[in-house]
């Protein structure tokens, strides 16, 4: 999931930062050392300590002390006609600095198929984005054995969403480990005062995830298993950085990366400063318009979206980056943009041809307020007279999406036997606001060069990118543009487009299609 307030991210990464020396960013000196939290008996089974966890359990203070020990449960469910017995383990991993002092407890849930050959059974590591989003979205939305189901015909009704067996779970194809980033979900830094410096940044975050993955694989004897990373939204950037950190710091190469609605480069999302970003979001406006007008069919979608892409990068972008038109030329341009986007021409004119997808006057039309995360989804506009953008709620993140937090608490307690008084931190604006987008010696970390290196250094690495037609936060055209400009390994990047928004998996048909495509990707 992307930032609860996209504009806040844009502002934060545009801030002026003094260059930081490489050594200063290595706040842990070396990659953090992790040990597994000592487990105790769950109601269903005593949780044995995983092999390799030899250190004495640490004593925690504050909120970190409220997290329970690991819980192990056993399940048998049927997915797509196939009965699978599997073990679920919910617990925490302890991150330590180079002095051995605990710095965080990382919450995870692992699902492993019983009796499978670990040398051939893939294992996929999941994380969401934000920065600041917990992994409950992917867990209960896309891939886990249990999903959060919304009422048929009313996708914005989070109050009546129910937990149910996920018929499209990825479990038949892969073991799964869902990881919450420090400061999100139930992953807690032990010292909140130093968490910003230790965890809330592009490179620090990647180092912590890489070591967590290495430890889980090592203690569970899964170092020989095929390894995949799965990230949503900012999780696209995170997956690139984690793959790099795994290779360079943990000597682990990944077999593939699955990116769902990914952010791949922050500058490509900054419509306020980058005309290319404005061009790349335009096809998502057009797809949303076509869908709302019932003019986007499965048979015609590919051709229509291709035409929208070429218009956006052709006539539209060339006008946008040239001398601004005036008089009749300006009116013709604004009329053309209004026709493609379905937005009112006066709004297009006020935005000078480059509408901000998060602005209230762009999202509010005829008494309805449309979502940044799905241009076809709307609610009754609580402020149809117009308000500042900060007071304009998004139907997804401020509305039905919030149901994933309480639903995950219920699921963890009832199905996983993991009990805690702590609320699940689904979206942390504290983490989001503190995030450091700088790289090692760079004003802003750039992931596309890292992706190019990964594809060149690992000749079998494959990338799966899934985008929704109607996503205005991380538009599908940005993924296409990045993929088209990769010089090595372009044939190993698969682009998959689906009817849906940022959380494309909330639509049952799209969730099923995504699962089928991922199945093929994991079984080359």
By CATH's scheme, which homologous superfamily of the largest domain applies?
A: Alpha/Beta hydrolase fold, catalytic domain
Rg (C-alpha, Å): 23 Å
Supply the CATH class of the largest domain. Answer: Alpha Beta
What's the architecture of the largest domain in CATH terms?
3-Layer(aba) Sandwich
| Overall structural domain count | 2
Structural class: alpha/beta
Strand content: 15-25%
Assign an overall shape. globular
Proportion of residues in helical segments: 25-40%
Count helical runs: 16
How many strands? 16
How can the largest sheet be summarized? Answer: 11 strands, mixed
Distance between the termini: 28 Å
In the predicted model, the low-confidence regions spanning at least 5 consecutive residues are 2-44, 49-54
Provide the residue-averaged pLDDT. Answer: 88
| CATH fold node name of the largest domain | Rossmann fold
Question: What would you note in describing this structure?
Answer:
The protein is an alpha/beta fold and 524 residues long. The chain folds into 2 domains: 63-268 and 402-522, Alpha/Beta hydrolase fold, catalytic domain (Rossmann fold), CATH 3.40.50; 275-400, no CATH class. 34% of the residues lie in helices and 18% in strands. It is built from 16 helices and 16 strands. Strands 1, 2, 3, 4, 5, 8, 9, 10, 11, 15 and 16 form an 11-stranded mixed sheet that branches. A 3-stranded antiparallel sheet has the order 12-13-14. Strands 6-7 form a two-stranded antiparallel sheet. Strand 12 (364-365) and strand 13 form a beta hairpin. Helix 5 crosses helix 6 (234-250), helix 6 (234-250) packs across helix 14 (447-457) and helix 7 (275-292) packs antiparallel against helix 8. It is globular, with a radius of gyration of 23 Å. The model is unreliable at 2-44 and 49-54 (pLDDT under 50). Keywords: Carboxypeptidase, Glycoprotein, Hydrolase, Protease, Signal. Pfam families: Peptidase_S10. One of its GO terms (molecular function) is serine-type carboxypeptidase activity. Residues 1-23 form the signal peptide.
